[in-house]
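#dry-run=false #mode=assembly
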Amino acid sequence: MVIFFNIYMREKLEKLRASAVVEIQKIKDLKKLDDLELNYFGRKEGKLNLMLKGLKELGQEEKKVIGSVANELKSEIQILIDNKRADLRSIEINEKLSTEWLDVTLPTGFEEKRGHLHPNTIIERELEQIFKSLGFMVADGPELESDYYNFEALNIPPDHPARDMQDTFYIDNKAGKEKLVMRTHTSNVQVRAMQKYGVPIRLIVPGRVFRYEATDASHDIAFRQLEGLMVGENISIANLIAVMKVALKGIFQKEVRVRLRPGYFPFVEPGFEMDMGCLICNGVGCSVCKQVGWLEILGCGLIHPNVLKAGGVDPKKYSGFAFGVGLTRLVMMRYGIEDIRYLNSGDLRFLKQF
Ligand code: DAH
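#status=ok
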């Protein structure tokens, strides 16, 4: 009886093994595999446990034999289940990889807006680079300036007719007695620089200047200049011309036609005006050059002894040149801008072109 039962149990276990193998093979998803695992090994309803309940009636020896057969079977099926689970998981991952991947190089659909430099800044920085390569330092100065540094120290006393050359914004100074103006030129830094740094000195000052005047295509109430100053022993107009040629060639990337005319500025003696051939009309005549084909781009000369003195420099020992370039003019020439007023307009249709 016991022996029969034994054989009967072995057969049942064998059948269980065979059906488990087939079932596991067929399974296609993880959820069903979990169900199957429960179905075979569940504590109460699991097929294996139900089957082993019958073992209670067996003797000690038989229990041992059948028990170990059952354990082997259990671990065998468990291994099959574990392998299947690993297979299903990797299939699942591969499927995800092939359907859910993201192309991070695809355009977002939104154009990234990038800022850029104002044309004024572009030219200013280029000039700074050129002058630095010639050993000039770059300095700054106040836009709200005392009458002294803007005029008097530059050999323009209060009632001097030269004051009429520049239409000036005079500012009420409620805080003190000093007369204030919006600087009409970057020349205001000449005396400040000599006082601060002494001589020899080579320096440029790019910056905004202000004029109280009617605006048109070539005049605005605020524009930019670049002042230059070189003081030392035996500095002459020849040095000035050499420096200016290098600077203009650097900016326009080609030889630019220039001409020097005698010019009057109270702070230089002798004084000159330098013109360059208009690059917008190539000398034919247009609204920017007022139909003459030439554009005045800078005033220059040898620094007046009175100005050197104001800067604490001995005019008997030292000489120097100074120049003031219309930086805004250079920008207009370089980019073919026909109306100066675009530059301060803040109009994006204009600015986006640079
Ligand atoms: N400050 C003059 C102006 O705004 C330009 C100028 C002329 C500057 C001669 C200079 C100079 O340094 O030497 O019109």
